Amino acid sequence: MSDERPFPHRHLLTLDGYSREDVTQVLDTAEAFFEVSRRPVRKVPTLRGKTVLHLFYEDSTRTRTSFELAAKRLSADTLNLSVKTSSVKKGESLNDTCRTLGAMHPDIVVIRHAASGAPHYVAKKMECRVVNAGDGMHAHPTQALLDAFTIRRNKGTLEGLKVAILGDIAHSRVARSNCRLLRLFGCDVHVAGPRTLVPKHFAEAFDVTVHDRVEPALEGADVVMALRIQRERLSEALLPSLREYSRLFGLDRERLGLAEEDAIVMHPGPMNRGVEIQPDVADGPQSVILDQVEAGVATRMAVLYLLLGQGEG
Ligand code: CP
């Protein structure tokens, strides 16, 4: 366990302010926890007596279940507030929800919210630690960490890799957090998507190369990350049609052939099969999509452990 170095963060709200050393500490700690999930008895006593509160205002399969499993495998007590059946539905504000839940003394809140900045707000209102499990279009830091863990396991390193991130960049908190993290390690990051789905100034803001065709991004790539078309966030006609999008920007076998022969294929999920990625690529030999899911538990165990087990007081 890489716990000799005190972890210098109280919260994980975004990866801004996290150094390469901090990220490496999370990944090394996740490496130590990885085998716990493959044991016959998948539990360690590390966070016994701690309480983890999951507060998901948006739907989730992977993030929610892996945080819950991570907390349980560390022996923490877990509470899952189902927002759909809570007093939020009666109009209770986020402020009052924070005050109410704070009175029950959780040690850490894991929050997903449609509003960018909601986890920062909660961190100001509550005394406990806070982890951002995805806020609006802003950040999804644990997704970027588990992606980095998956890349490092498959490629042996993060340094010097060409990474292609394809699709709906504009609505993607995953793209933003990944660009931030990958640039810390000097990756050559290329993002590609329709002009309507790549924000202006994205290249300058994240120090990456932007393309409006996927082919130049894919050429010689070591890592190919396809992103979900976020139909629920498409507020206007930003795409001619999903069929047209798939034809021009979708990841199929032919396009994947432009990348390195040993390139890995990633997707944060959930996938729109046949839209941003073809099923034979998603399920093909280069796909590490289920590795990402497995990495999610170990990485979130590491985050909970570092923030709760040895974070600053
Ligand atoms: N990647 C991700 O955040 O998936 P969920 O929405 O299922 O949690």
Characterization of the model:
- The chain has a 5-stranded parallel beta sheet with strand order 7-6-5-8-9.
- α1 (20-34) crosses α12 (289-309) and α5 crosses α6 (173-184).
- The protein folds into 2 domains: 20-140 and 295-307, Aspartate/ornithine carbamoyltransferase (Rossmann fold, 3-Layer(aba) Sandwich), CATH 3.40.50.1370; 142-293, Aspartate/ornithine carbamoyltransferase (Rossmann fold, 3-Layer(aba) Sandwich), CATH 3.40.50.
- With 313 residues, it is an alpha/beta fold.
- The radius of gyration is 19 Å and the shape is globular.
- α4 links the parallel β3 and β4 (129-135).
- The chain starts with 19 loop residues before the first helix and ends with a helix.
- The protein has 12 helices and 9 strands.
- Helix content is 38%, strand content 14%.
Topology as H/E string?
HEHEHEHEHEHEHEHEHHEHH
The CATH homologous superfamily of the largest domain is termed: Aspartate/ornithine carbamoyltransferase
- Strand order across the largest sheet: 7-6-5-8-9
Low-confidence stretches: none
What ligands can be seen in this structure? phosphoric acid mono(formamide)ester
CATH architecture of the largest domain: 3-Layer(aba) Sandwich
Q: Give the structural class.
A: alpha/beta
Number of domains: 2
Radius of gyration over C-alpha positions, nearest whole angstrom: 19 Å
User: How far is it from the N-terminal to the C-terminal residue, by CA?
Assistant: 20 Å
Give the overall silhouette: globular
Name the beta content range. 5-15%
Q: What name does the CATH topology of the largest domain carry?
A: Rossmann fold
